[in-house]
């Protein structure tokens, strides 16, 4: 099992494209993405738990209620959320896509991302659809990955290969992240494709279970988006025996999925709005997964800790503070804390109290662009990882004037 | 009942002082505060729920377990938290204070605020105590208010007068706020004095009940401090009949307390770290207090909403987003949102969807330094107010390098 190129087009039978259709004013920014499978695929998705949901969420839920889909269409620049005609517009997006691609409108997964509460004009989407479909190709994941970006600064696409019953299978994914990222059951927008054959039920089970340890453990800013969705299509074109139970093949499939989602999560966290670095909190020694998870997420979500990481300040007091208010049942007098990066590891807190350390060495470690904060609760064997980024001037700049 | 001058020295029989003793390197910053009552006073306090608690919290809890106190001593520049010898040092602070002031060490409320995890040296406190006591005066609240400041930019002191059974009573309070402010049961550091006579039990009841609607509804950055404490001493020198039950006098007393705490809360929120403006979320039409409170706090805590307020951007989608993920059970299709400042009011969202509004007028309103965001849930009669501030470049700057 290893990483390969090709993104969502790496698996057999998936074409993709991405164009500028005019939703965004900036003509150099693609704003409409399409992924189409050569045949109907098992489909599954998980969604935001925000009570305010983007209209596309409702339409996608309905469309894949039968467990199948054949295309994913997504615009950036407008979330189609809190609009009176939202569901109507999202439904039209599916119809226009289906007609142009020669598939059933009920087999379209639809998504929108961007500003909330501004009516989404269907005209540029309708006008751009012929070009979008004509540019579909088996080697064009990159344009789709670009078209779903909002304040993202880098495109996020990954693929892996794996073997099921002697058949080579592939899986690919693209994501948009950046801001309003604090997933709860689902997250930002992620589209995953695979040519492995798997039933819709098992596909959903694999996706849901993976998300608890991947997407649901990221936080950029504590804000759970209205439009979060992770969707996956499995078209079976690899020719493996279809996975319909939790057997060895299912294990292999979930490992491949975890390889994709971990890469996407790290990329999303590192490219958080205004971020200068990826920050990961590795918690070990928890008495159970819930405790370890709660501690890891509380540290990653702390504005004070995030600002300290921006300043490369080994302010471990803020780590302990965030653990203390997390709600997790821990013995704070047992906690060890250290920081790790490519420059090494430095221990800063033992048994809940400070220990002498070299500020110079700590600075050197924390000036790197990928930081791990290691928390050992010394109370059991459970561990968890949460991912986020630092809090910077640019986060404030980007969000101080996002709409205008 | 009206606001008067004098802070914690406004009530009869309270002296205060504040000096630079050397905990802080900057010699122009006072770092040690003392408030002493001429006689023993009923005392009550509420504390942070953070599992990591400053050592002074434990010592104060023990000292006022009998319901009485006579002095409050507080240093800034060091939180005396996560130190192996913390309780020992906090106990010594009480002993040194008591000896110099001629009172019982068990009658001292002790507090510390500043950086976590650095041993607190007792030497400058011991050396400074003679000066601190010699400068005690009935008209020196201002120096005590200054000495408890950390990253605060303005001192926070208020006082009111009121009448109980024909006797004039007074109440005063000082606070430090700024960062790591997201109180849970208690908050930052607040010291309140009154010359009204009230039993310790009723004093605690009044304080606890008030905090639910005042201090517990502030958030600067979502981080619940390790050292939060609100304490109050009532020395009875006004000569009113002691309040021992929830009668009319108790009502008057709680009103006076609410007048002090509301002023302190608004001052703390407006002076949040890096803040350029006070932001208050007024929620009405909630089906119950819990719902209204949850909605108000979620809006005030949203980093995206706070950044939008900094940019004077009427991005009401972020208000709806924060309501949607708050966990409150609301009908999002009923919600109205408007913004108010001294420049007027502008409605931006009706029944959960956007309405046309003048961006120019919205900008004018949001450029003021005190903003109200009004949320009507149209689902009942409960209301709630939460207070916070905007998220700014300076918040990041202050916290990117706090220790060094």
Describe the structure.
The structure is a homodimer of 404-residue chains. Chain A is of the alpha+beta class and 404 residues long. Chain A folds into two domains: 2-270, L-amino peptidase D-ALA esterase/amidase (4-Layer Sandwich); 278-400, Ubiquitin-like (UB roll) (Roll), CATH 3.10.20. Helix content of chain A is 31%, strand content 28%. The first copy, chain A, contains eleven helices and 15 strands. Chain A has helices at residues 55-63, 86-101, 123-134, 141-147, 200-213, 248-270, 289-301, 303-310, 316-324, 359-366, 393-400, and strands spanning 2-4, 14-19, 32-47, 68-78, 108-115, 156-164, 167-176, 189-194, 229-234, 278-286, 336-341, 344-350, 353-354, 370-376, 382-389. In chain A, strands 1, 2, 3, 4, 5, 6, 7, 8 and 9 form a nine-stranded mixed beta sheet that branches. A six-stranded mixed beta sheet of chain A has the order 13-12-11-14-10-15. In chain A, helix 1 (55-63) crosses helix 2 (86-101), helix 5 crosses helix 6 (248-270) and helix 7 (289-301) crosses helix 9. The radius of gyration of chain A is 21 Å and the shape is globular. The model of chain A has no long low-confidence stretch (mean pLDDT 91). At the A-B interface, helix 8, helix 9, strand 13 and helix 11 of A face helix 8, helix 9, strand 13 and helix 11 of B.
């Amino acid at each position: 099992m290893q990483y390969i190129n090709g993104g969502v087009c790496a698996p057999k039978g998936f074409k993709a494209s991405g164009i500028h259709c005019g939703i965004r004013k900036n003509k150099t920014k693609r704003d409409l993405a399409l992924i189409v499978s050569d045949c109907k695929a098992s489909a599954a998705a998980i969604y935001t738990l925000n009570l305010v949901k983007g209209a596309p969420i409702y339409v996608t839920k309905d469309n894949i209620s039968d467990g199948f889909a054949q295309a994913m269409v997504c615009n950036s620049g407008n979330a189609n959320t809190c609009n009176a005609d939202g569901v109507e517009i999202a439904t039209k997006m599916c119809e226009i896509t289906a007609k142009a691609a020669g598939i059933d409108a009920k087999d379209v997964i639809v998504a929108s991302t961007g500003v909330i509460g501004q009516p989404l004009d269907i005209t540029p989407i309708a006008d751009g659809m012929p070009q979008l479909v004509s540019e579909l190709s088996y080697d064009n994941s990159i344009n789709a990955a670009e078209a779903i970006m909002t304040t993202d600064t880098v495109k996020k696409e990954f693929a892996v290969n794996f073997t099921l019953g002697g058949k080579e299978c592939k899986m690919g994914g693209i994501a948009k992240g950046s801001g309003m990222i604090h997933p709860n059951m689902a997250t930002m927008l992620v589209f995953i494709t695979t040519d492995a054959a798997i039933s819709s039920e098992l596909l959903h089970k694999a996706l849901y279970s993976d998300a608890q340890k991947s997407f649901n453990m990221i936080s950029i800013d504590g804000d759970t988006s209205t439009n979060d969705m992770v969707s996956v299509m499995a078209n079976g074109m690899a020719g493996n025996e279809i996975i319909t139970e939790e057997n060895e093949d299912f294990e292999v499939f979930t490992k491949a999925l975890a390889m994709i989602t971990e890469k996407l999560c790290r990329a999303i966290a590192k490219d958080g709005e205004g971020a200068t670095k990826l920050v990961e909190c590795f918690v070990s020694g928890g008495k159970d997964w819930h405790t370890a998870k709660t501690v890891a997420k509380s540290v990653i979500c702390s504005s004070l800790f995030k600002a300290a990481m921006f300043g490369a300040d080994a302010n471990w007091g803020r780590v302990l503070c965030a653990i203390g208010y997390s709600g997790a049942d821990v013995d704070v007098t047992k906690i060890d804390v250290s920081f790790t990066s490519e420059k090494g590891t430095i221990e800063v807190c033992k048994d809940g109290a400070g220990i002498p350390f070299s500020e110079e060495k700590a600075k050197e470690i924390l000036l790197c662009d990928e930081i791990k904060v290691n928390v050992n609760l010394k109370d059991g064997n459970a561990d968890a990882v949460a991912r986020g980024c630092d809090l910077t001037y640019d986060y404030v700049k980007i969000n101080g004037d996002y709409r205008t």
